Amino acid sequence: MLSIPNKEIWLADDSWRTTFNKMRTYKLQLGIVSILMISWIIQTSINCTLNAANNSHSMIWMFLGGFGLYTTILIIRLTRRFRHDQSQVVEEA
């Protein structure tokens, strides 16, 4: 399990199911985006190998930047959800 602050609050009997569902959702989102990114990189490398005259290296950097931005946003959402101070926790819709 992931190490989260205030485990006694987040894993209490009345809130552990919500915490588990949120963590599962975050991990599922990151997993799906990672698999799509890996698939796209493999497809792009195959296309670049087969058609060397039409290489689009800028698209690779744009997708890597988008993946980095998405990962950063996901980490920020995670840290805002599981803060050390319970009064500062931001609930998401």
Would you mind describing this structure in some detail?
The chain has one domain. The chain is elongated and about 60 Å long. The longest helix is centred in the middle third of the chain and has 35 residues. The chain has 93 residues and is mainly alpha-helical.
Structure keywords:
mainly alpha, 3 helices, elongated
Q: How is the topology of this model organized?
A:
Layout lengths: L6 H4 L5 H35 L6 H25 L12
The secondary structure category is mainly alpha
General form: elongated
Number of helices: 3
Biggest beta sheet attributes:
none
Separation of the first and last Cα atoms: 24 Å
Q: Which percent band covers the strand fraction?
A: under 5%
Mean pLDDT: 80
Helices and strands, in N-to-C order? Answer: HHH
Radius of gyration (CA) equals 19 Å
Q: How many domain modules?
A: 1
Structure described in brief:
The chain is mostly helical.
